[in-house]
Design goal:
Elements: H1 3-8, E1 16-19, E2 23-27, E3 37-41, H2 53-73, E4 78-82, E5 98-103, H3 122-130
This protein binds adenosine monophosphate and zinc ion (ZN).
Adenosine monophosphate binds near residues 26, 30 and 92.
Amino acid sequence: MCIFCKIINHEIPSSVVYEDENTLAILDISQVTKGHTLVMPKKHVANILEADPETVAQCAETVRKLAIQITANTNASGCNILNNTHESAGQTVDHLHFHIIPRYDENDAIVIAFNESKPQDLGEVLKTVRGE
Ligand code: AMP
Ligand code: ZN
């Protein structure tokens, strides 16, 4: 059983921020910024590429509610909402989850950088992503 399923089953303790029938939100054990929260479905699914639409929709609604709540209650000036899918993208726990990371100022502990990109033929890229 994966570590998040063990948390959902109360086999491992966690700091529960929010719970409903289908989703659970807990404090990330490693608080990138104060209030860093993970939202996950109670049903085990490895990642968004394998999840059914209903599960994703349930998570999205919990993320929406908690983004408002956490940003307000931490007095953050914004938040990042992040999902890592597969190891290449930094996924370390193979149970779908979304990070809500309150942001305080540009000197807080997180840097999300879009490195300078190489010029691309957007027509070619569009064909690729549309599967043409
Ligand atoms: P990711 O790298 O997107 O797969 O994120 C996994 C996150 O789970 C990391 O930020 C970890 O700090 C967090 N994490 C791992 N184990 C636990 C745990 N037992 N309780 C709370 N958060 C955890
Ligand atoms: Zn799981």
